[in-house]
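name: query_chain
kind: protein
chains: 1
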Amino acid sequence: MNMLKQSIILLVTIAVISCAPLFPRFEAPTVSVSSFQVIPGNNVVPTFEIGLHVINPNRKALKLQGLSYNVELEGYRVLSGVSSQLPEIAAYGEGDVLLLAKPDLFSTISLFTDLMNRPRDKFKFNLDAVLDVGGLMPKIHINKKGEIALVAESR
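structure:
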């Protein structure tokens, strides 16, 4: 019985060691918001373009399979969406991802009502995104928080 336990432990150890090269060390890419703008159009509800800049610190290309995101302003979820039309980011390279998003009408109305009742020059934002690099690699979670000024600050 003792010999059987030792054999099983040896087999499991060999299996783990032999699989290690299949999962090389993976560093999470750096993702930053590079642009956030309204796209002109004739619709009542505007379309926003959100630009993300991705830096891949890995020795293999980053083949982005999908992305999901949510944007909150002052705690109201005003934008959310998904995309599967994403570029491949070269090894030790950089690339840009453009997302087109339409706001949630009811959350946006609630935000505007809040801004009318409590005017302010800056408001808090929160961007949550999940990048799927496919395969057995872990999904990459991104959370950016900050403040956006509604009017340019004077110097």
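note: The mean pLDDT is 79.
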